[in-house]
Amino acid sequence: MTTKRSRFAYSMSRRSALSGMAAAAAVVSAPAIIRSATAADPIRIGVLSPVTGAWTVYGQAHSRGFELAVEEINAAGGVLGRPIEMILADYQTDQRLVVEQANRLLRQEKVDLLAGTFSSADRNAAGPVVKAADKILLYPTWYEGQIKDYYPGVCNPNIFMFGPEPTQQVWPFMEQMVKEHGKKFYMIGSDYAWPQVTNLFTKEKLQELGGETVAEVYIPFNTPQYESVLREIREKKPDIIFHSLTGSDTVNFRQQFHAAGMSKDFTLWTVDDEEVVTSGLGPEVSAGAYVSFDYFMTISHPNNKIFLDKYRAKYGPEALMNTVGVGMYNAAHMGAMAIAKAGKVETAAIRDALKELTFDKAPQGTVKMRGLDNQIVVPSYLMRVREGWTSVNDMFEEIASVQSVEPKDARCDLPL
Q1: Phi and psi dihedrals of 94, rounded to 5?
Q2: Is there a contact between 109 and 134 (Cβ–Cβ < 8 Å)?
Q3: Could you give the CA distance from residue 58 to residue 51 in angstroms, rounded to a whole number?
């Protein structure tokens, strides 16, 4: 396994993965090592990122977003007279290694807080660790929302959510999509929590609008063939195919959907296929699909131009960014702002300072961390993939946008 440190290199050994609770307990039982901070000491932030493995395509933007923000913060003088030091740990898209790496960052690298993980499962694996260590985790990814049953991966006062949940990503555009395309939804998603809970909230809003779900199908990971699904879609005749497949299953389904000549017959709305995935699908397969997220590279907000100019100058003109990388960028800046506001690097003080904090330089537009449930308030954009697009610069046409979307309250004991 290789990792890197921003400013920036260290070596690490791979140990056998530990179970979540046992590893979390180890943080508490480990001997305390006392170090007194001086003005010159860096504030150390551990970043858990899937740099390699199945989610590498996301891991690159994920870690780069945070790294760019750290460079900006340090160029402006750091925080409390101290630079930020980013310690990057690659957990190789392996949920077991999330626990191992989180513990290593906290116990050996002595980081002051954590940022990252990619999927909900990864975040939930880190939850017991940050709970036991009483450290903050800044989580960047769009996700299914907080439900008490999944504590401490959610409903945890030490975890702050920087990505949108379904009532921000889907609900703002439900009325428009139903009015323009119809009320009959066919839901197809991967077989895990995020698609299932996303569909749960989508059905709630659809019912309010007098619509119906004609089928709800969950597909095991790495399913190669979709003949039976395509046949059922033709039989059910939905107005909208609501799509929450991930990874290779997105590619397999969408290619077969297009090859069957169905792209022109049905409206497809996805809550997963931003620039990175759409680039992989190509213009013929992706054309005409609707996509909703808090961020796209093509949004016209002036903040986005400034951000992308800096990003491309550092990583190259073809470097891709996405909502997760932007979530990490915002998390780094808002984490630094919270430390400055708190006046010290201490969990309880940072936690209090993050609540209700506003960041007006976010690439997608002004964002705010809601104090009630540690959920970010973000803009939301509905895009349509253009016919014959040639790059991310002409990939999406903006259909609608809402500049600030308050999510539905977390299903937790509130306030957190």
Answers
A1: -120, 110
A2: no
A3: 8
Residue 382 has what pLDDT?
98
Q: What pLDDT is attached to residue 28? A: 34
Question: Model confidence over 165-179: pLDDT tens digits?
Answer: 999 999 999 999 999
The model's pTM is: 0.88
Strands 290-293, 267-270: pairing is parallel
pLDDT at 325 over 90: yes
Confidence tier at 24 by pLDDT (50, 70, 90): very low
Q: Check if the beta carbon of residue 4 is closer than 8 Å to that of residue 63.
A: no
Bridge partners, residue 383, by sequence: 291, 398
The secondary structure of 297-357 as a DSSP string is TT---HHHHHHHHHHHHHH-TT----HHHHHHHHHHHHHHHHHHHHTS--HHHHHHHHTT-
Asked if 144 and 166 touch (Cβ cutoff 8 Å), the reply is yes
Please state at what angle helix 193-208 crosses helix 171-181, rounded to 10 degrees: 60
134 contact partners, CB below 8 Å, separation of at least 6: 158, 347
Is the pLDDT at 7 greater than 60? The verdict is no
C-alpha–C-alpha distance, residues 74 and 42, integer Å: 10
DSSP string, 189-251: EESSHHHHHHHHHHHHHHHHTT-EEEEEEEE-TT----HHHHHHHHHH--SEEEEE--HHHHH
Distance of alpha carbon 155 from alpha carbon 119, whole angstroms: 16
**Antiparallel, parallel or unpaired: β 137-139 and 367-370:** unpaired
Residue 255, CA distances (Å) to 110, 268, 305, 307 in order: 47, 13, 32, 33
The single-letter code of the amino acid at 96 is: R
Region 153-173: mean pLDDT is: 97
Pairing of strands 358-359, 367-370: antiparallel
Assign residue 388 a region: left if phi > 0, alpha if psi is -120 to 50, beta otherwise? left
